[in-house]
C-alpha cells in the first residue's frame, strides 16, 4: 500500500548544470608547428596576423622571403646564402658563390689553365649565370640551416 514513488520529476534541476561550457575549437592555425585552436574564425585571423607581425625581418635574397622574429636570426640565415657556393670551377674545383666571381677567376692568371680546359671541352666563356628559378627554395635553406 505505502509504495510511494519518489522519482517523479526530481531529475529536472540536474539538466541545467550539465550545459556544455566548452565550445568546439574548430579553427586551427595553419602555421606549421603552431597548432593553436580557436572557437571563432576572427580570433584565428588575428592570431595569424600576429604570426606575420612577429617576423618583421625578411630575408632580402631573391626568391627566399623567409621571415624572422629577430634580426640576429635573419642575419644568420642570410649567411647561408653567402656561404652557398654553387659554382665550381671544373679546372681546379674551387667554389664560388657567384657566376661572375667564377668568370673573374677564369680570366685571372691563376685560372688561365682552367679556362683553357673549359674551352677544350667546348664550353664558351664567359659562363652565363643560371636562371633565378634554379635558386634553391626556402625549404632547401632550412635544410642547410639544419646542417650547421
Ligand atoms: Zn599559430
Ligand atoms: Zn633567405
Ligand atoms: Zn679554376
Automatic annotation (TrEMBL):
Query: Which terms are listed as keywords in the entry?
Result: Metal-binding, Repeat, Transcription, Transcription regulation, Zinc, Zinc-finger
Against InterPro entries, the record matches this protein to: Znf_C2H2_sf (IPR036236), Znf_C2H2_type (IPR013087)
Transmembrane feature ranges: none
Q: Boundaries of each C2H2-type domain copy? A: 27-56, 57-86, 87-114
Q: Which GO terms describe its molecular function?
A: DNA-binding transcription factor activity, RNA polymerase II-specific; RNA polymerase II cis-regulatory region sequence-specific DNA binding; zinc ion binding
Matching entries from SMART domains are given as:
ZnF_C2H2 (SM00355)
Q: What SUPFAM superfamilies has UniProt attached to this entry?
A: beta-beta-alpha zinc fingers
Q: Where is the signal peptide?
A: none
**Which portions of this protein are annotated as coiled-coil regions?**
none
Name this protein carries in UniProt: C2H2-type domain-containing protein
From what organism does this protein derive?
A: Cylindrobasidium torrendii FP15055 ss-10
Amino acid at each position: 500500500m505505502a509504495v510511494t514513488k519518489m522519482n517523479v520529476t526530481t531529475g529536472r534541476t540536474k539538466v541545467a548544470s550539465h550545459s556544455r561550457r566548452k565550445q568546439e575549437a574548430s579553427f586551427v592555425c595553419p602555421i606549421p608547428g603552431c597548432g593553436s585552436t580557436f572557437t571563432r574564425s576572427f580570433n584565428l585571423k588575428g592570431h595569424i596576423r600576429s604570426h606575420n607581425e612577429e617576423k618583421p625581418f625578411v630575408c632580402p635574397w631573391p626568391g627566399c622571403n623567409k621571415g624572422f622574429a629577430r634580426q640576429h636570426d635573419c642575419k644568420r640565415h642570410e649567411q647561408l646564402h653567402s656561404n652557398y657556393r654553387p659554382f665550381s670551377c671544373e679546372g681546379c674545383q674551387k667554389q664560388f658563390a657567384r657566376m661572375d666571381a667564377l668568370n673573374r677567376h677564369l680570366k685571372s692568371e691563376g685560372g688561365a689553365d682552367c679556362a683553357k680546359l673549359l674551352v677544350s671541352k667546348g664550353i664558351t666563356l664567359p659562363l652565363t649565370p643560371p636562371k633565378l628559378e634554379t635558386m634553391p627554395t626556402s625549404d632547401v635553406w632550412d635544410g642547410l640551416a639544419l646542417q650547421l
